[in-house]
Amino acid sequence: xEGLVEAFATAMVxxxxxxxxxxxVPLFIAITRGSTPxxxxxxxxxxxxxxxxxxxxFALAGERLLGALGIGLPAFRIAGGLFLFLLALxxxxxxxxxxxxxxxxxxxxxxxxxxVAVFPLGIPLIAGPAAIxxxxxxxxxxxxxxxxxxxxxxxxxxxxxxxxxxxxLAARLDRLLGxxxxxxxxxxxxxxxxxxxxxxVLDGARAAFxx
Length: 211
Fold this sequence. Notes:
With 211 residues, the protein is an all-alpha fold. Helices cover 86% and strands 0% of the residues. The chain has helices at 2-19, 21-31, 37-68, 73-92, 95-110, 117-126, 129-142, 148-168, 170-209.
């Protein structure tokens, strides 16, 4: 039972950071500017379904895909851990916030009035490279725990549900939290992601070199 709780909690932290439901809120508001509330609800549901389907697909077939490409899991653990560590640094030093702000402005200008559920909401805002990497690594790490993969799947489902609720309440959350509080939460989650990324690298090194 303790192993299941640990697998769920570890995966939940990784997914919340890489999917970043609160961080998507300003982007969602920007790219749906001028849409009716009903259209926003439809885009939110469709985007979460598309992004979720892609993430669950990688959860189920990610290891086989890596094998087909000739990439070993230890190598992917190390590379994925380093990639997530760079993302954590961006979050701690608030570089990710600025980059996403520029992206929101660009997408608002380029795709105003369009159905943005597939791109950019579903892919890459929800199912982006960081989230896909986290899903594969979490499934691999939990495979040693009985029913651990189900715990990771439950964490992914909970994250997608949180993302959907955040998008439905986007306007309220934007007014309630504001950029300052979102920035503080982002830094805290970035610290946790950094520690988790280092653990992935250590796991990969142990598996690769038999440490």
